[in-house]
Amino acid sequence: MKFFIDTANIDEIKAAMDMGILDGVTTNPSLVSKEVVGLDKAREHLKQICDLVEDRPVSLEAVSEKYDDLVAEAQDLAAVAENAVIKVPMTVDGIKTVNALAPEGIDFNVTLVFSPLQVLMAAKVGATYVSPFIGRLDDVGHDGMELIAQAMEIIGNYGYDTEVLVASIRHPMHVVRAAMIGADVATIPFKVIAQMVKHPLTDVGIEKFLADWKKVTG
Predict the structure, then answer these.
(1) Looking at residue 142, what is its pLDDT?
(2) How far is the C-alpha of 187 from the C-alpha of 153, rounded, in Å?
(3) Residues 169 and 145 sit within 8 Å (Cβ to Cβ)
(4) Could you please report the per-residue DSSP string of 90-124?
(5) Long-range contacts formed by 36-45: CB under 8 A, 24+ apart
(6) How many CA atoms lie within 13 A of 114 on its CB side?
(7) pLDDT value of position 218
(8) For the chain, what are the domain ranges?
(9) Helix axes 10-19, 39-52, angle to 10 degrees
(10) Integer-rounded Cα radius of gyration of the chain
(11) How far apart, in whole angstroms, are the C-alpha atoms of residue 137 and residue 63?
């Protein structure tokens, strides 16, 4: 399974890269707003992220709602870097945008997905990634991971090239369950990545080894 980091923070991206586990980055307007203010600075910041991770995909989110505006914004964002992936919402206008521009070689991540039919529609028009938001489904009493299993089965049934990108991850068990289902990608906040490394028995084991080694060295 590929690990993307869900952030627009340069230091967090560098830390994930240093660990050797980073396969890509996803951003969104909320994450970017924590780092910079102003359209020019935002574009410059996104370009910096794309350059930093080199050929790894970086999802940049379009904020337009209407088809013509989405097409123009998607083309503009795609020009930021060769590894830019354009996030569009799961709406009629979003799907139309993917259908129009995917054949031109623009990669798309269809976001805010909450149902298996939305997964199917995104895959059918050629989305590179489809992003079910599992944490938000859990928040309203649904099992978000059930949607991931449905998404994998549907895409596998028809051989679509679309990758299932598990989004809105809240804790390490989301990553475990996604991996067990066979999801293609998990986009993970840095806080959760840090939690994934740790286990209390690992810490206890290190302390015991160090204590025993002190006995050897005096």
Answers:
(1) 95
(2) 20
(3) no
(4) SSHHHHHHHHHHGGGT--EEEEEE-SHHHHHHHHH
(5) 43/80, 45/8
(6) 11
(7) 79
(8) 2-217
(9) 10
(10) 19
(11) 22
Angle between helices 172-181 and 144-158 (to 10 degrees): 30
Cα–Cα dist 144/133, whole Å: 7
Give 94's contacts (C-beta < 8 A, 6+ positions apart): 70, 88, 110
Q: Which residue has the tokens 């979003």?
A: 94
Residue (of 114, 180, 186) closest to 151 by Cα position: 114
- Positions marked active-site: 87
Pairing of strands 58-61, 84-89: parallel
Give the pairing of strands 2-6 and 24-26: parallel
Q: How far is CA 192 from CA 17, 29, 70, 111, 144, in A?
A: 15, 20, 32, 20, 17
**Mean pLDDT per 10-residue segment, the chain (218 residues):** 98 97 97 94 96 97 97 97 98 98 97 98 98 96 97 97 98 98 98 96 93 90
Phi, psi of 175 (to 5 degrees): -70, -40
Which pairs with CB-CB distance under 8 Å and at least 24 residues apart come from 176-184? 177/145, 177/148, 178/1, 178/134, 178/145, 178/148, 179/1, 181/145, 181/148, 181/149, 181/152, 182/1, 182/152, 183/1, 183/148, 183/151, 183/152, 184/1, 184/2, 184/129
Tokens of 103: 């054949």
For the segment(s) 2-217, the CATH number from 3.30.70.100, 3.20.20.70, 3.40.30.10, 3.80.30.20 is: 3.20.20.70
